[in-house]
Amino acid sequence: MAENLEEDLPRFMKQKIERNRQKAIIIKRSKLVSHPYTKGAVISEDTTTIKIGATKYKDTGGGFLLEEEPEAADIPENVAVQVQAPIFEPDRPTCEICHKQFATSWLFDNFTLKCCDTCRMIERCEADQYEQVEKRALEVWGSEEKIEEERERREEKTGFSKIEKNIRSR
């Protein structure tokens, strides 16, 4: 039926319809703005929604962009996650620090380093404390040489005090 109407229209009306159609296409394309500085394709869907790649952001009007929740159709239903097989008792690795067997360890899983999570945390804490002590010593004494001199002075002092204790105890 629509085809019959177009055939019955005069030529100037058909031209006007075509011009309006072309204008509509241009307006629609102007609303779909692509930003050159982004990695993914940026598309403005309407005045308040921007789509970057697969993520949609909503303009709050207060200077913030809120990430919209993906629609159910956008979320894949079955996502395969690779899970390592469990380590059974006789095959469990032994921690190189505390010499205890462990079932799981972040260092072992990622780097095959035989260190349990407990020792890993202790090592990290000790390293942080050592770094803080070293930093504070540099603040107090000023240089590595002065720290070393103070260490030697204290060792001599403790050496003399041990000798004095031995003499007194006799």
From TrEMBL:
This protein's name: Uncharacterized protein
GO cellular component: nucleotide-excision repair factor 1 complex
Listed GO MF terms: damaged DNA binding
Region span, Disordered: 144-170
UniProt superkingdom: Eukaryota
Origin species: Rhamnusium bicolor
Listed InterPro entries: XPA/RAD14, Znf_XPA_CS
Single GO BP term: UV-damage excision repair
Pfam families linked: XPA_N (PF01286)
